[in-house]
Amino acid sequence: MGYAPDPWQWAPWQFASDGGRFNGRWDDQNAQFRTLYTSDSLLGCFLELLAPQRPNDTAFLELNEIQDDAALVDTYPDPERGAIGLSWLSGRMFARGRQRGSYAEITTSQGVGYLVDAGVLASLGVSPSEVDVALLKNANRRSVTRTIARHLFDLRDTSSLQPAVDGIAFRSRMGDDIRLWAVFERSDALVSEHITPGPAEAVTEGVPELVNAFLLLGLHWKDAAD
Q1: Could you tell me if residue 73 is inside a domain?
Q2: Residue 63: pLDDT above 50?
Q3: In the structure, what pLDDT confidence band is assigned to residue 81 with cuts at 50, 70 and 90?
């Protein structure tokens, strides 16, 4: 998933809105390299991208408890729950391709064990007893996962001194059946050298995997007339 004209290109740095960092799980805590996210299925791409848009019942109830003495809700109505504007489609594209490289299987028992043994998260005050797969899938612990990404990016093979891994292999928070990869940027090329791009297509409302993702996430299209 990406934007026209080439969804495989690295995201421009001007969109790194989190203190100069991108806000993906395995982006760089030091904001010095970019990360390309891929999946073994188009459904996985849509689920990952749209998961933050799911209806938030807690937030909805909290909004309903607010006393609106100035009747501002008439002028500024609450967003429609689970509604996605059609503008979301604008410029979005998807593509298939071939991927190669060596990836750290970070959510395996061996991967978790390595993080503990290497003390990767000690600088953040994370105790060894806290390091588990749940921590690695916690969307609210970006400093943790981005610190891990930085550590793995810097890791070198002891004999060749070449990068030990080209990125991270992991499982989606939306289901362990969805395999995902984070590919690290290591050159000035517009597209990662680990990707052989295939043809790209525009994302439309009728893409079956998008329809399925909307169903699984409880989303719907906001009326185009609004």
Answers
A1: no
A2: no
A3: confident
